[in-house]
Design brief:
This protein is an alpha+beta fold. It folds into 3 domains: 43-150, 2-Layer Sandwich (Beta-Lactamase); 165-270, 2-Layer Sandwich (Beta-Lactamase); 282-338, no CATH class. The protein is built from 12 helices and 10 strands. The N and C termini lie far apart (125 Å). The relative contact order is 0.06.
Length: 340
Amino acid sequence: MTQQHEFPAGDPSPDAWDHIDASDSPGTLVQSLKHFYTAVEHSPMATAITDPSGRLLYVNRQFVAITGYSRDELIGRTSSVIKSGKTSPETYHELWRTLRSGEIWRGEMLNRRKCGEEYWEYEVITPIKDEHGKVISFITVKEDISKRKRQEEELRLLATAFETGQATLIANAEMRIERVNQAFTAITGYTAEEVLGNTPRMFKSGRHDASFYAGLWQSLETRGHWQGEIWNRNKRGEIYPVWQSITAVKGADGEVRHYVSVFHNITERKQMEQTLTREASRDHLTGAANRRTFDRALITAVRLAEKEGGEFALMLFDIDHFKAVNDTHGHDVAMPCSRP
């Protein structure tokens, strides 16, 4: 008759199998069981065995390490001890429906460690059946995927920012365009299909000389970043100003892998600046240069004459009774009188 052995109790370590008398059983079986137990106990995957009702019968070291609970705190309890309360009820309904049908369930759950920290797990739960097909236990293998979930969330945020933020262009180390967003298309008029594989030279307006671009590249090579005002040409041939920021993205080896350019159209700002400059230098009623502009022009003329040893002429015009005309007939009549 074959001797039956109970699952090792107490502290589950490989030494727990030493109470089995190898002389009463085939040595290869005992050794195989010890090797199997050691493999599960030291597995990098959290592993648990539960009874049909979900009560924990065994957990390995990784399960203890991930949850923060000791074996004594886990054995005999259900997995609800690590529930976060944030996994949807539908997930649990699907889990038990699948397991009760004798099938393997796979899925993700948001659980909580003993310290209160929430963490994501990917779980595979397999029902174990007896010779009659009745489920007698479940084996659960889990992987902590919290890092992966954080990375996925960061990627979603970056993707959202990429599509909803400023115009963005990503180029490889050879400055070949690899990706652009919708804001880029809205500003330049070019679709992604029209620019991919090309270089940003296709947007040059011709307003900047070689020294401008030399300074730009020097900044990228020495500081890894450049920002400033630049004039580009859109698909319709229109020249427009943008405020642009270019960053060199390096790999682990320190070599540049990509360039990321972010920019926005500043045409309205430039027009506003011109309007403010004009209003600051001219009379808003007549459009004639105001006293401040006259003073600046006079100072410039005097300095130039002194520098070159030349002369200049100054002519003063006075409009007799202009104030009376303005007060009597209003601006509509007075303004034409004040213009050359």
